[in-house]
Amino acid sequence: MVTGKADRNLIARNGHAYVSVPSTILSLETDTLMTQSPPADHDQAPIADFGIGLEDRAARPNVDPCDIAEEAMPAMVLGELSPPDAAWLQGHVATCGYCGNMLRSFERCELVFDQATGHLASTIPDDRPNTANALGMREARYGFMDTPVGPLLIAATDSGVCEVSFLTHHDAYAPIHQMESRRIMATERQASIAPAVAQLDEYFSGDRDRFDLEVDLHGLTPFTRDVLEATSNVPYGKVTSYGRIADRIGKTRASRAVGNALGRNPIPIVIPCHRIVLSNGNLGWYTGGSEIKRSLLGIEGVRYDAPR
């Protein structure tokens, strides 16, 4: 260990040393303060990193991976990290002694907390008001998933999956706001969507041709519900037209309205609107884009070549 005056000039943080600021009062001219330029945008911390994995965040310029690891440790011990993020954090702590010790400290704290709260839960009823209920809204939990067609945001209420959103062309704020328009308040909790993530993983791997998931269509119109329920009955690897869906719900001339309703499908893939095509056999529009629609059908053995 280094002792004496030298170590007072160094402060260890995450195992990285830097020179401390001397306790000297600096006098600055007023005009110097007034003419200083604001920091560049890239020096400012982002407001949110929705959908961006820990590995990508840690690889950014001027970012200390240990800082990213520390921020993620509470979510790690609570089981709220996505599998890729958990794998990155485990790999990092395996090579960083400082972060490894810190993660073990978090795990010890979590064990003590679980023991304490487990005892309290058995003796004290939890009658705290729920924010969503107080606002007359339904409560949901959401998380993220990486897939072959890009990142997804997935949300579920106590009644079932209520949102599957492609994040290829927009950030997570868009589906969160869409859920709010359906009177659903969503908060992030990765562990709550684990069943949906597991089944979607199997689907993308070609190991699942039917989802065994409850869905929550809260906030949708009766017509849209009818369209989505009819669409749910289209088998894996098959396609049908918007007109035939209209026939199935008893609205023979409503094929355009059916298309509009499917465009608002909040749970694509699980409710397979990618299996609905135009009456002339053309692919048609899709909420995630035609390339994603083509890819999903390809997983199911239905081939639609890209237009030349």
TrEMBL record:
One of its GO terms (biological process) is DNA alkylation repair. It catalyses: a 4-O-methyl-thymidine in DNA + L-cysteinyl-[protein] = a thymidine in DNA + S-methyl-L-cysteinyl-[protein]; a 6-O-methyl-2'-deoxyguanosine in DNA + L-cysteinyl-[protein] = S-methyl-L-cysteinyl-[protein] + a 2'-deoxyguanosine in DNA. It is found in: Cytoplasm. The active site is at C273. It holds the Pfam family zf-HC2. GO terms for cellular component: cytoplasm. One of its GO terms (molecular function) is methylated-DNA-[protein]-cysteine S-methyltransferase activity. Residues 222-302 form the Methylated-DNA-[protein]-cysteine S-methyltransferase DNA binding domain. Residues 66-99 form the Putative zinc-finger domain. Keywords: Cytoplasm, DNA damage, DNA repair, Methyltransferase, Transferase. Its EC number is 2.1.1.63. The keyword Methyltransferase applies. Residues 141-217 form the Methylguanine DNA methyltransferase ribonuclease-like domain. Belongs to the MGMT family. Involved in the cellular defense against the biological effects of O6-methylguanine (O6-MeG) and O4-methylthymine (O4-MeT) in DNA. Repairs the methylated nucleobase in DNA by stoichiometrically transferring the methyl group to a cysteine residue in the enzyme. This is a suicide reaction: the enzyme is irreversibly inactivated. This is Methylated-DNA--protein-cysteine methyltransferase. It comes from uncultured Thermomicrobiales bacterium.
